[in-house]
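tool=predict chain=A
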Amino acid sequence: MIDRSHDLPITRQARMLNVSRGSVYYLPQPASAADLVLMRRMDELHLEFPFAGSRMLRDLLTAEGFQTGRRHVATLMKRMRIQAVYRKPNTSKPAPGHKIYPYLLRNVPVTRPNQVWTMDISYVPMARGFVYLAAVIDWFSRRVLSWRLSITMEAGFCVEAVEEALARHGKPEIFNTDQGSQFTSTAFTGLLAGNSIAISMDGRGAWRDNVFVERLWRSVKYEEIYLKAYGTVAEARKSLASYFGFYNSRRPHSSLDRQTPDQAYFTPLPQIAAA
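tool=predict ok
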């Protein structure tokens, strides 16, 4: 991750991490107060109607009295990193020079912990502004293995989350993500390849497999984020740590036969001590 206070020049840090200098020097522009209100409502509507694209979201917002166009809704969706969950042609494009890996999970039964991990990023509204939340999830048990918050979409916070998960829980056989530039970056794929982990990226049919990730974000937002108005990133981090502790150890899941993610993950596996 780029350290702007380090003695090593930023350009050299970028070269070592294989990220573009343009993305390093870019500082995100704060959203307007009106856009923050709009984004908060879009996030809620997306959880309620995950199949809604920019046109439908525009229509839903207009019916509620918001004055906005489809193009602006699409721009905010991209900034929030949300997209409609439905069967459609794969139009995602990696960053220039980034390799796209095939989807390895089509018709593959996931029957045990640490067989497949996945990772996703979601938008988190705050009292003023917003941050991004990235989580590493065990596909079989739904357990959140690690997570990170970031004010930007740079790959570094995703890499840090994976490094923590590997240190605490060993490694999966397959790691699946979408084709976002954070996940196609050489820093991210190099970490997985260096640990001999098969890399899988969403392709045709993946929308159906990944519904459980949308359910995780729905739980986190309705049971934690929407009930709070985090004033600082530190406050958000502390509150989310408490929630994920509850989610993993105390919240039963119908898809796990009323087990908690911890029970589903650790029962067939000896617990690996934290590094």
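The chain has two domains: 31-86, 116-266. The first helix runs from residue 10 to 17.
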